[in-house]
Specification:
The protein is of the alpha/beta class. It has helices at residues 31-36, 38-43, 79-91, 110-115, 177-192, 248-260, 276-284, 305-319, 336-341, 347-357, 387-392, 428-431, 435-440, 445-456, 460-464, 546-554; strands at residues 11-15, 48-51, 55-56, 68-72, 95-100, 129-130, 151-154, 159-162, 197-200, 266-271, 292-295, 323-326, 363-367, 466-469, 476-483, 486-493, 499-502, 506-511, 521-523, 526-529, 534-541.
Length: 557
């Protein structure tokens, strides 16, 4: 019998290192601070941690602009600290996934410093360079996600270089074989140090169209934001030529071949494309590409049961043997409790959303603070650190509001995160959600998260099973999960008021408890479920629902 890979159905806890714990009193979180909090993280019951970038960087984009792939930035610690983190995490049964930003570097990287000097130096082709048009303007109409033109003039070469993000983040030229080889060497450096996986930032941005063709315009009714806002000019184009190019598949296969030399290691790709769900399926098909991928499709502004169902079903239809990874929050978007809960969200919403995410088919990325029900911090303009927010203020306030330090203690000057002023302010409302307070409250969001996580570990159907959605009233999400003959019905009420749900297609065999939710009332083929409630039961498919039987049997294992 083939053993299930550890990452299938795993819960991956995302750590934003600047904001987890400060160990040296400079107001910025660091690797020793993460080590201090690994016992807490282990208590959550997660399977792995994903640590956002901690590499040497000028921090123009807070670590996503790397100037040395093999060095730890001094603000975060040292390679010795990282080795100790790996050792301690592994001793607690926690896998370690690190961010790899492969499509671009910092303009302070030695590679770029050499490449920019001339058109004939050894690294002249390592970045994307292009001549101006006859009138001196950039070579095409490509735009940066962070605003404005994606091309920056370099007088030393008399050419433009491409940057899909900040102008201080020049894009590497993956059409150059030397670049591809070097990037794989940089990745292997960390695999040799014992990391268990890679979260691959903007992995569909590695290649560009060598003909530098213009992107076509996108009509207003088709503009949507996934990782950016609709009023960002980036949304005004179909991004056909500046990312998600067909050549990327061969590189992913080379990367997977490297990973396969380190058994148990995993790749998780971040996808932001014209059709992210289609690209997720394409990038994870077979056994020679990415292990998993996630996108911004559930990081949207409004909560809707129909949208969640449509998104998951669309991916499932195209995924075939691939494996999804879902998230409802990360370091790039407004915290889910504020996006989906409004100004004064109910703790019941936090409990339900965590349970809903943890019940979908696939693996899960859970962003630090979601286990506390943290809301978005209100950051004033003069306090902004994020260049994205500085550029688009006030229409877009940037990503600082979801990146504030973790509140460990309610009454300490800096919430127990640091002995000094913190790099971003900690909002007063987070003090009431401090970990020390939630530890003592049996019904807190934190303790409910732990309880649900432990219960989920005993439910193979939720971790590994197929999924089939069922029709339900508005604001109710209902689906079946099936694994090795066991069928679990999961129902989630996304509204604050109780709902009555017909159960015509299933026969309830056993109500499941131990998950921390009210079991609900099941009578005469219907369920009454609390506002922001969740319901779980072992069921059989009704005899007359052949379609459900066929769908469950047909889905990949």
């Amino acid at each position: 019998m083939t053993q299930t890979p550890w990452w299938r159905g795993a819960v991956i806890y995302q750590i934003y290192p600047r904001s987890m714990m400060d160990s040296n009193g400079d107001g910025i979180g660091d690797l020793p601070g993460i080590i201090q909090k690994l016992d807490y993280i282990a208590s959550l019951g997660v399977d792995a941690i994903w640590i956002s970038p901690f590499f040497k960087s000028p921090m123009k984009d807070f670590g996503y602009d790397i100037s040395d792939y093999r060095a730890i930035d001094p603000i975060f610690g040292s390679l010795g600290d990282f080795d100790r983190l790996i050792t301690r995490a592994h001793s607690l049964g926690i896998k370690v996934i690190i961010d790899q930003v492969l499509s671009h570097t910092s303009d302070q990287h030695l590679w770029f410093q050499e490449s920019r000097t001339s058109k004939d130096n050894p690294k002249a082709d390592w970045y994307v360079w292009a001549d101006p048009l006859e009138d001196g303007t950039p070579p095409n109409n490509w735009l940066s996600i962070f605003g404005g033109c994606a091309w920056e003039w370099e007088p030393r070469r008399g050419q433009y270089y491409l940057h899909n993000f900040l102008k201080s983040q020049p894009d590497l030229n993956f059409h150059c074989a030397e670049v591809r080889k070097e990037i794989l060497d940089e990745v292997e450096f960390w695999l040799k140090r014992g990391v268990d996986g890679l979260r691959l930032d903007a992995i569909n941005f590695c290649f560009h169209d060598q003909q530098l063709r213009n992107n076509p315009a996108k009509p207003i009714h088709e503009r949507k934001g996934r990782g950016f806002k609709e009023d960002n000019p980036y949304a005004f184009q179909y991004h056909i030529y500046d990312n998600t190019r067909p050549e990327n598949i061969a590189f992913l296969q080379s990367l997977r071949a490297l990973m396969d030399r380190y058994p148990g290691s995993v790749t998780l790709g971040e996808i932001s494309a014209e059709d992210s769900l289609k690209t997720m399926a394409e990038y994870t098909t077979g056994q020679s590409r990415l292990h998993m991928a996630y996108s911004f499709e559930l990081l949207v502004d409004k909560m809707s049961a129909s949208y969640i169902r449509q998104t998951v079903e669309t991916l499932e239809a195209g995924l075939k043997e691939g494996w999804p990874c879902w998230s409802i929050g990360n370091h790039d978007v407004v915290r889910v409790m504020s996006r989906w809960g409004g100004k004064n969200p109910d703790d019941k919403l936090a409990r339900m959303l965590n349970a809903m995410l943890l019940s979908l088919r696939g693996s899960v990325c859970s962003y630090q603070g979601e286990e506390l029900g943290l809301t978005e911090a209100d950051i004033q303009q003069e306090q902004l650190q994020d260049p994205y927010g500085i550029a688009f203020w006030p229409m877009f306030k940037g990503r600082d509001g979801c990146r504030t330090p973790m509140p460990w203690e309610a009454n300490s000057p800096h919430c127990g995160f640091s002995s000094a002023a913190t790099w971003l302010p900690i909002p007063d409302e987070h003090r009431g959600r401090a970990i020390e307070l939630q530890e003592k409250a049996p019904d807190s969001v934190l303790n409910h998260y732990r309880q649900f996580m432990q219960w989920r570990k005993q439910q193979p159907a939720l971790r590994l099973g197929n999924i089939r959605f069922m029709d339900a009233p508005d604001d109710v999400l209902m689906f079946l999960r099936e694994h090795e003959g066991e069928r679990v019905l999961a129902v989630f009420n996304l509204s604050p008021v109780s709902k009555t749900v017909a159960l015509a297609s299933v026969n309830v065999k056993t109500l499941l408890d131990g998950h921390g939710f009210n079991s609900g009332a099941v009578t005469e083929g219907s369920l009454v479920i609390d506002g922001f409630g969740a319901f779980f039961a072992n069921v059989s498919v009704a005899v007359d629902d052949k379609s459900a039987e066929q769908l469950l049997m047909a889905q990949p294992q």
